[in-house]
C-alpha cells in the first residue's frame, strides 16, 4: 500500500532539525533536570479569567457545530482590533476565525497555490513553513537572508526567485531571529509583490511583542491591502497556545475560499473557544502588555549578559519570545554547539540550522523560563562557549 504523493511531498526528506528538542524532552522524561530554552511556550498558563469565560460558555451550551467563518461578534471584534492597530479599513467580511495561526497559514496557501507553481518564504523560517507550502502540491522556495544584514530580506533576492511564484510568506517579528522588519525592507518587499503579481502572506502572530522599533503590517502600504493575507492568533498575545484560536484577514474572495475549505476540513471552531477569544480581546492592550512583559525583561537580561563578549554576538532582536546567538567563533555549527551544551550543561537551545541554512552557526534561545533561571542559563552558556573558543 502506498501513501498519497501529496503526503510524501509535504514531508520532504531528511532530518527535521529538531533532534535537540527531542533529546531534551527525553532527558526530562527520564527525570534529568534540563533548562529548556527550545520552544516558544509561555512560562505562565492561560489567565484564569479567560478560562472562566470558556467554562461558562461551555456550561451555557455553546458546544455544538459552528460551521462558517466564525461568530459574527468575534469577527467584528477582530476587524475592529486590526483596523485600530493598522489604520486600514477592515470589515468582518475580511476576517475568518481559524483553529490557530497554523491552520490560517495552511488555508492561505491552499487557496492561493496550485501544484507546479512556487511558494516563496524567507530563510531562516518557522519550522512548518516549507511543509505547509508543499502540502498544496507546490514547490517551496527559500529566499536566503544574511546575518550581516540583520536577516532583513532583500528585494533583489526575492525577485530573483519569483519566476513561476504565486505567493511570498514573511514573518515579522520573526521566529526564529526576533528581528523586526524595517519599513524600508517592507516597502522593498511590497514593490516586488506588486511587480511580480504575488500574494503576500504576512505571519504577524508576534505583533504585540515589540521591544525595539515598531511593527508595520505590509497591508498598510500603498496597493497592498488587496493582495495581502495577514495571519493572526491569540496564542502569543494572550498565552492561549492550547486553545487553538487564530484568524486570517484578507480580501473577501480569499475569506470566502477559506470558508469553503474550512467546511470540508475543520468544520469550524468550538463556540466556547470563540467566546473565550472574544472575552480575551476585551481585556484590552494592558493585558497584552502584561503577557509580553517577561520577554521584554528577558531580552534585556540577554543583552546585558552578552554585552561584554567580544566573540559572541546577539542578532539584533526587536520582538517575539526569542533571541538568536551567533556562535560561529567557536568553530562549531549551531547543531554541534547545541548538542555539546545540552550534554555538558543540560541547557537546551535550538540550532539555527533547524530553521534553514541562513542561520547556520547560530542558536535560537527561547526566553521562556523565569528571569532568574534565564539569567543563570545565559551565564552558564556564555562560560561554556568561551571554553569552546579555546579548545575548538
UniProtKB/TrEMBL annotation:
The keyword RNA-binding does not apply. SUPFAM superfamilies: PLP-dependent transferases (SSF53383). Pfam families: Aminotran_1_2. Its cofactor is pyridoxal 5'-phosphate. The keyword Transferase applies. Its EC number is 2.6.1.-. It comes from the Bacteria. Keywords: Aminotransferase, Pyridoxal phosphate, Transferase. Residues 33-381 form the Aminotransferase class I/classII large domain. It catalyses: L-aspartate + 2-oxoglutarate = oxaloacetate + L-glutamate. GO terms for molecular function: transaminase activity. Belongs to the class-I pyridoxal-phosphate-dependent aminotransferase family. This is Aminotransferase.
Amino acid at each position: 500500500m502506498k501513501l498519497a504523493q501529496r503526503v510524501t511531498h509535504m514531508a520532504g526528506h531528511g532530518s527535521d532539525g529538531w533532534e535537540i528538542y527531542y533529546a531534551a524532552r527525553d532527558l526530562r522524561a527520564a527525570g534529568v533536570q534540563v533548562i529548556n530554552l527550545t520552544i516558544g511556550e509561555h512560562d505562565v498558563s492561560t489567565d484564569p479569567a479567560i478560562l472562566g469565560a470558556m467554562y461558562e460558555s461551555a456550561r451555557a451550551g455553546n458546544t455544538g457545530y459552528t460551521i462558517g467563518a466564525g461568530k459574527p461578534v468575534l469577527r467584528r471584534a477582530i476587524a475592529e482590533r486590526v483596523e485600530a492597530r493598522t489604520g486600514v479599513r477592515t470589515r468582518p467580511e475580511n476576517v475568518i476565525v481559524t483553529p490557530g495561526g497554523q491552520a490560517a497559514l495552511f488555508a492561505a496557501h491552499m487557496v492561493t497555490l496550485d501544484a507546479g507553481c512556487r511558494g516563496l518564504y524567507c530563510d531562516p523560517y518557522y519550522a512548518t513553513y516549507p511543509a505547509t507550502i508543499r502540502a498544496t502540491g507546490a514547490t517551496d522556495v527559500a529566499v536566503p537572508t544574511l546575518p550581516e544584514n540583520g536577516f532583513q530580506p532583500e528585494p533583489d533576492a526575492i525577485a530573483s526567485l519569483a519566476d513561476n511564484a504565486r505567493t511570498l510568506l514573511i514573518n515579522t517579528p520573526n521566529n526564529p531571529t526576533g528581528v523586526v522588519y524595517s519599513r524600508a525592507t517592507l516597502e522593498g518587499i511590497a514593490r516586488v509583490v506588486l511587480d511580480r503579481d504575488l500574494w503576500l502572506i504576512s505571519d504577524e502572530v508576534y505583533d504585540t511583542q515589540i521591544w525595539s522599533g515598531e511593527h508595520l503590517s505590509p497591508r498598510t502600504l500603498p496597493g497592498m491591502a488587496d493582495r495581502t493575507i495577514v495571519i493572526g492568533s491569540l496564542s502569543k498575545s494572550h498565552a492561549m497556545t492550547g486553545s487553538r484560536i487564530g484568524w486570517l484577514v484578507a480580501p473577501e474572495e480569499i475569506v470566502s475560499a477559506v470558508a469553503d475549505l474550512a467546511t470540508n476540513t475543520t468544520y469550524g471552531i468550538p463556540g466556547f473557544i470563540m467566546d473565550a477569544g472574544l472575552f480575551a480581546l476585551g481585556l484590552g492592550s494592558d493585558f497584552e502588555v502584561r503577557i509580553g512583559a517577561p520577554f521584554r525583561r528577558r531580552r534585556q537580561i540577554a543583552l546585558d549578559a552578552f554585552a561584554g563578549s567580544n566573540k559572541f554576538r546577539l542578532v539584533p532582536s526587536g520582538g517575539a519570545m526569542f533571541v538568536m546567538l551567533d556562535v560561529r567563533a567557536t568553530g562549531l555549527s549551531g547543531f554541534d554547539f547545541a548538542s555539546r551544551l545540552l550534554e555538558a550543561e543540560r541547557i537546551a537551545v535550538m540550532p539555527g540550522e533547524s530553521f534553514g541554512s541562513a542561520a547556520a552557526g547560530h542558536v535560537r534561545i527561547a526566553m521562556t523560563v523565569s528571569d532568574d533561571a534565564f539569567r543563570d542559563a545565559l551565564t552558564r552558556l556564555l562560560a561554556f562557549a568561551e571554553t569552546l573558543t579555546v579548545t575548538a
